[in-house]
Amino acid sequence: MLLQPLHEPAADKAGVRLLLLRDDLNHPELPGNKWRKLKYNLQEARRLGHDTLLTFGGAYSNHLAAVAAAGRLTGLRTIGIVRGEELGSRPLNPTLTQARADGMALRFLDRATYRRKQEPDVEAALLQETGPAYVLPEGGSNILALPGCAELVAELADVTEFDTLCVACGTGGTLAGLLTGLAGQREALGFAALKGADFLRTDIDALTQQAGGRSYANWFLHTAYHGGGYARLSSELRRFIQGFEHRHGVLLDPIYTSKMMVGILDLLNRGYFRRGSTVVAIHTGGLQAWAGFGGSGA
């Protein structure tokens, strides 16, 4: 586990120790929260005798890419249900091209049906077409995703004292896992990567309730740092990423961690964190997404 101090003027002025947890380095091919969320799901798929994983995501989904890579590494077949119609003869984007290269069979689902993907009749129809499979939800956020993410808390506590954990949120599973690991102690902050993400508060609470039968009060979801919406990379955000890499030698991904860091620095400037506290920002990986934005920010 690599913890990198971030010497930012906003943190120094606020009297806060700011650290970056390089969880993007935790696995050579499934880095960051994707490996943590898949770890126990892969074990369960094997235990149930499945040889196929079926999951869901958008055209630039880090989750689809991760499941495809996991299938290649473990010998499991993978099927990706992609939101939206296939673009005829146009080539696939880099994310889906890599997923297919890793052996994932891609099926495209119109957006109206995709919104109903969790309904039993829609799932049953998909499985009738594809054959039996272990079904992973979009983003991999289910009950079995939580313990893998919760392990991060114990690993971190072994190497440093900290007061606040910060993480970017897409579906909320990683934050829910961190909450179960924190068990009501310290503070956790989530930074939504998509617009209109207030619903995530309910989803996160539901996940922790299902996992441990309790809700937690030691967390908050910030929804103002989405940067224009999911997978939107403004020129301002790109410049921020370039500046961060220049200062710290770390490339942030364009969808999640970059928006989290914008939010953390803004909160530091606003005096949000207690002076003398330690704030840990989690780099959850996702760098493969740069292929869809014309290369890295630098």
Automatic annotation (TrEMBL):
Keywords, in A-Z order: Pyridoxal phosphate
Cofactor dependency: pyridoxal 5'-phosphate
Metal-binding among keywords: no
Domain Tryptophan synthase beta chain-like PALP as annotated: residue spans: 11-285
InterPro entries the record matches: ACCD_DCysDesulf, TrpB-like_PALP, TrpB-like_PALP_sf
UniProt xrefs under Pfam families: PALP
Gene3D superfamilies cross-referenced by the UniProt entry: 3.40.50.1100
Family: Belongs to the ACC deaminase/D-cysteine desulfhydrase family.
The protein's name in its UniProt record: Pyridoxal-phosphate dependent enzyme
Organism per entry: Hymenobacter sublimis
